[in-house]
Amino acid sequence: MDLDSLYQEVILDHYKHPLHKGLSEEKTIQVHHVNPSCGDEITLNLLLEANMVADISWDGVGCSISQASTSIMSDLLIGKSISEAFSILDEFSGLMQSKGGSKGNEEVLEDAVALAGVSKFPARIKCALLGWMAFKDAASQGMSDEASNKQGEENG
Ligand code: ZN
Predict the structure, then answer these.
(1) With CB atoms counted within 10 Å of each terminal CB, which end of the chain scores lower, N or C?
(2) Is the backbone of residue 61 left (phi > 0), alpha (psi -120 to 50) or beta?
(3) Ligand 1 center to residue 62 CA distance, Å?
């Protein structure tokens, strides 16, 4: 089996058996992101605890790339610190911008390297990034919420 078909298998497996799909009630923040060019939609619940990504749960519809990428992202980022999660996200964004020139760092990206081939198809990059951008948005909002909550506690 060559690398391309192995990667196809990884993507299909995440698409058919998505991880962390199904919204959990425990969340710091919820975001909804759409990719109108393909019709992909993701709702993502993020639970932050002490600067850690305590949980990610999501629901969505769309193409196999968007759904598989969100499954891979959620499994990869849960349990990481927010700063680690953002550096993984940067690594993945870099891979998506590589126009097929990068295979991706498997030690950092794990299953997400299976999406490396997507970077050759500009129309599909937004599909692959949808869940990751939803996470970025949720984490940014969640951190400012946590900061203002803390301020409230200190003042009260
Ligand atoms: Zn798509």
Answers:
(1) C
(2) beta
(3) 6
